[in-house]
Amino acid sequence: MKVMVSIEKGLVVIAGERSILIPPSFITLLQDRVMQEKGEAWRKIFYRAGEKAMENLAPTYKLLMLIPRNSASKKKLIEELVEIWSWMSCGRPEVTKIDLKSNHFIFRVYGSTIAKQYLGRGEMMCDYLAGMVAGGLGSMIGESLKCREVKCIANGDEFCEFELKGA
Ligand SMILES: [Zn+2]
To answer: Ligand 1 center to residue 163 CA distance, Å?
Structure first.
C-alpha cells in the first residue's frame, strides 16, 4: 500500500512509514532558528539530517520495490523513489539525468513547498532536501553520493535543481 490515510485513527502512512502532515512553517521556523544560532553551519546540519533521514528510510522503501540486479533496475529504483517523494507534498520532483556509469544525476523540484517560504531571498535554501536526495538516491543504488543545489526558486530560478556526483 503506497499511501493510507485514516482520519479516525489520526494516521497517515506513506510507503510503509507513519508520516505527519505539518505546515511548511514548522520546518522553516526550525531552520531559521538554527541559522540564527549557528550561522552558515545550518547548511551542513540540515544536509546531514536529511541525508541520515533517507538512509534510515531506504530499507523500508526497498521492501516495496524491486531488488536491484543491474543498471536498468537501479534506474527503476531511482524512479520509484522519486514517485514516493511526489506523494509527500513537497513540490513536484523529477529526475532529468540518470548516468549510472559515472554516478552523475540531475534532480529537480518544481514549486518546492519549503523553498516557496523563502521567495526573494536570493540564495539556495534547500540544503535539507539536498541531503535527502543524496541519502535517498545513494541508498537506492548502493553508492555514496554528494548533492549540491545549483538552482533554487528562493534564488529567483524557475525550479530547484540538484546535481549529484559520486562522493
Ligand atoms: Zn531550492
So the answer is: 12
